[in-house]
Structures are given as structure tokens and as C-alpha cells.
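ARCHIVE CARD
Drawer: 12
Card no.: 0347
Subject: one protein chain, sequence and derived structure
Cross-reference: see card 0346
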Amino acid sequence: MSAIKVEQLHKRFGDVHVLRGLSFDVQPGEGVVLLGANGCGKSTMMRCLNGLTPVSDGKVWVNDQCVQTASRREVKRIRQQVGVVFQRFNLVGNLSVFQNVLYGALGRQRWGILGAMAPLASAEERDKAMACLERVRLADKAAQRAEELSGGQQQRVAIARMLMQEPEIVLADEPIASLDPKSGREVMELLWDVVRERGLTVICTLHQLDVALEYGERFIGMKAGHIEIDAPRQAVDKALLHGLYQGQVRVDGQTVSEPQETHDLAPA
């Protein structure tokens, strides 16, 4: 059984053909790094994987469940299996770190958001939230407002919230793009450690090639809406990956000539 299977995936936004027949499988426990220049379609593909963006054609399966033919209830169950770590953290800044982590349990709460509110959450869920914070080394920040933390600390809270969800698959979309190099390395080390500890499947989009080569077990490289590279770590080097950032790389036909390895905040 594949953790994720993509078959002839197409996505169009008006006249712009963003995803152009993507097909690949990701096995349970596999660590995949997704690479490509801004505008190549990476983030659109990531949103298609758990149904946040409807596809124009093709199919996506998550744990052998087809997202496109699933009922609304089944899609909700699929999304519970998929944790997401965002570039912009997506925390509620004026709420406590502890409350933000508790929101990771929303998908399994019978009473919806009320069941994930700190005063109403069960003792078991509260203990679990603290354990998640301890794992990311932020238990001492539980009572602070999320907006008071540094960028690296906020991303660690987001990882704790993802752990609280208890997913089987993690989609990390540029998780270190908003961070300085030191904080970015620390977040990548933490993210990879926790997914390995729990045997999770991970697809992580990155721009920084040195970081990608350090953590990736398999590389999927996109260029102008197509998959150009799909290879294991031992078959990939930096020179090969540079080609993803040269020539016509974007779905809108624009070109760039230099590799984009900086902490780029533009959408992909």
C-alpha cells in the first residue's frame, strides 16, 4: 500500500496549466524532498494531495483512499491522517502556545472547537499537548502567547501541533523559508527527528539545496509543472538539482538563470 499515490494529475487556473500530468508513489515511512523554482507548481501540488485544492484531472490516493471520489466524511478522515507544517506557521498569535497545540486535536474532537479549548479539553488531551511541547523543547513556553516567540520557536510550536494531530503523513511546505539559516537548520533537524521516531511519511518542499541534500532520502524535482527528477539520494547531486532553477521553470513561462537557494518568501 502506498502512503500517497498520484496518477496523471493536472491542475488549471483559467488559462494557466499549473500541474501537467504528474505521477508518482510515496511509500510508508519514506522521506521525500520536493524541489523546484518559485512558480513551478510545488505548493499547488501539495494542496492537491489532501484535497485543499480540487484537481482538474487525474487522481490522488492517500493510504489507498482516492481523494477525488471520497465522500465529505471520508475526505475529513483523510485530512486527519495528513499533518501540515506551513511556511507561515499558521498559529493564533494572541492565544497561548498550549492552546495552539491543543488545536491539533480538533479533527478527533466530538464537540469540534469547544472540545479543543484548554478549559474544556480532557485531561488526556491536555497531557498529550504538554508531551508534544516537551518533545519540541518548549514546555516552558506553554503559557506564553504564540506571537511573543521567535520565528524558530513558532515553527516548533507548529510541529508540536502537528504531532498532536497524530498524523500518518506530513506535508511540510517550505517549513524553513521564513527562518534564518541557524533556526532553519534546527527546525529541519527537529522535524526529521520526530517523523523518524514515529515512522511517518513526509514530503517536504525546500529551496536550500545543501539542506535538501542533507535530509532527503528521495528527491522529486519539478520544472514548469512537470516532474523532471525522481531519484534516490545516491543518484542526485547539487549540479543535477541546479538545473531545476535554470531556463523555463515557471508554469507562466517566465525564466530565471540562477539557482534559488535563499530564504525566498514568494509563493511556489
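Annotation on reverse: Residues 4-256 form a domain with the Rossmann fold fold (CATH 3.40.50.300). Confidence is low (pLDDT under 50) at residues 257-268.
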